[in-house]
Amino acid sequence: MSRTAVYNATVEWKGEHWGHVVMGNGPEMAFSAPPDAHGHEGVLTPEDAFVAAVNTCVMMMFIWASERFKLNLKSYTCRAEGTKLIELDRTEIFTHVHLWPVIKVAAGEQDKAIIEKRVRRALDGALKYSLVANSIKSEVIVEPSIEILGHG
Questions:
Q1: pLDDT one-digit tens code per residue, 116-140
Q2: The pLDDT of residue 30 is above 70
Q3: pLDDT tier at 150 (50, 70, 90 boundaries)?
Q4: Rounded to the nearest 5°, which phi and psi values hold at 46?
Q5: Against a cut of 0.85, is the pTM above it?
Q6: d(CA 113, CA 107)
Q7: Which listed CATH number (3.40.50.150, 3.40.50.300, 3.30.300.20, 3.40.718.10) goes with 45-150?
Q8: CA–CA separation, 7 vs 21, rounded Å?
Q9: What is the residue extent of each domain of the chain?
Q10: Is 5 exposed, middle or buried (0-12, 13-18, 19+ CB in 10 A)?
């Protein structure tokens, strides 16, 4: 049977192009439009939050999948980049979000090729089960760098 969960955030305008967001899980911070849209540097923007939401959700799902596949994960870092298309009528859309995860897994005594295949399956699972990646129109492109450490 399907279930629902509700998440929330409250924003407040602080003048000019400044806002303050309080997220349902506790964090709060200032935000602005990006500098190229009359905003301010050095603070969260909606565009940054969008790209970060995809990146963080895929990472958390990869951690979950790594545990299920019993991978000995040593490190995971991922740079993400969102590409925004600006139409002639000034409407905008993110066309894709590109992720470059760098994943290091210890093989121990296991065969490195088998471990790498499990890492790739875990990454596929992370994309399949990522709430955020599944909730956006943008294409999510993943180009991983996988290093298997150890004997195998």
A1: 999 999 999 999 999 999 999 999 9
A2: yes
A3: confident
A4: -60, -35
A5: yes
A6: 9
A7: 3.30.300.20
A8: 14
A9: 1-44, 45-150
A10: exposed
